[in-house]
Specification:
The chain is an alpha/beta fold. The protein has 10 helices and 13 strands. The chain is globular and about 60 Å long. The structure holds zinc ion. The site of zinc ion (ZN) has 6 residues, from loops.
Length: 320
């Protein structure tokens, strides 16, 4: 009797962050084995590549490397996906780092590198909330705000690979200062960092709120988590700030929608844990400002399928 060899179609995905590297052996959207190691960014480019290679070897320990079609990397920052060069990654202090080439040399395997939000967008497209759509936006709400776009069946990259920097759309030229140095960006209003800054500003000018007790008067301890806790306990300032952040988000989404006419807009990221406080307002403002002819009603805004593994699964999907 002939022995039939069972072939597996594995690929490896890496989520490269400033503090940790998560490598996962994947079969489609399923993570077979995941390894997480500290990035040790202080060891420089070669040091980080060594850690990435180690994480990959550990993740592939139980399988034949011949069954792994390649390694996809999702890196925070600006990435040239054609060359695998990380053009600029402020969290790792990298400029023009040839990551794809270095990792490929270390592991003798094909490597592709993309921006991490685009990798997450790919995961939603292939396996998640974007499955079956050819035009959609994937917005990631976290400490900052990022986004990826699929337009006419392709990931949008832009001529210098910075398409989709929705966090830096200007909503109010006289608004609060953003991390990028400009005033009134979406990120300054609606990101985790933006919400924290607004709460701190209100506390510093003496506005009453239970947040003051929750952080024992130490403003450095104000976080999105604490603001969410206060909002759940009925604190009116926390609720107001979150509601306003939703209104600014809705305005930005309306602008994005007017410009690109996507079938759906997917919202994901850690801040969605507080969606009950900002999403209703975001929906109201979005529908107030979108072109009526293009408004798809409540179907327009949907939640991401993946919570935390989207960048890893999407990176692996570069080879599946
Ligand atoms: Zn900005």
């Amino acid at each position: 009797m002939l022995k039939r060899k069972i072939r597996h179609d594995y690929s490896l995905g890496i989520d490269l962050g400033g503090t940790k590297i998560a490598a996962g052996l994947c079969e489609g959207a399923k993570i077979i084995r995941k390894v997480v190691l500290p990035t040790s960014a202080s060891t420089g480019f070669e040091g980080v590549v060594d850690v990435m290679a180690q994480a990959c070897r550990n993740a592939m320990a139980d399988v034949n490397e011949k069954d792994v079609s390649g390694i996809g990397v999702g890196a925070a920052g600006q990435v040239d996906s054609k060359t695998g060069v990380v053009l600029y990654a402020p969290n790792l202090k990298w400029k023009n780092a040839p990551l794809g080439e270095a990792l490929s040399m270390a592991l003798k395997m094909p490597v592709r590198v993309v921006n991490d939000v685009r990798a997450a967008t790919l995961a939603e497209w292939k396996f998640g909330a974007g499955k079956g759509f050819s035009c959609f936006a994937n917005i990631f709400l976290g400490t900052g705000i990022g986004s990826g776009f699929v337009m006419n069946g392709a990931l949008l990259e832009g001529v210098t690979n910075s398409a989709g920097e929705i966090g830096h759309i200007c909503l109010d030229p006289e608004g609060p200062v953003c991390g990028c140095g400009h005033k009134g960006c979406l990120e300054a209003f609606s990101s985790g960092r933006g919400i924290e800054t607004e709460v701190k500003r209100r506390l510093a000018r003496g506005e009453g709120s239970s947040i003051r007790d929750l952080v024992a008067d130490d403003l450095k301890k104000v976080s999105a988590l604490v603001i969410g806790k206060a909002a759940r306990e009925g604190d009116s300032m926390a609720i107001k700030v979150l509601r306003e952040s939703g209104a600014w988000l809705g305005l930005a989404l309306a602008n994005v929608h007017t410009m690109l006419n996507p079938q759906i807009i997917i919202l994901g990221g850690g801040l969605m844990a507080l969606k009950e406080f900002f999403l209703p307002e975001a929906r109201v403002v979005l529908h107030r400002h979108v072109l009526p002819v293009a408004d798809r009603g409540n179907e327009l805004l949907v939640e991401a399928h993946f919570a935390t593994e989207a960048a890893l699964i999407g990176s692996a999907a570069l080879f599946s």
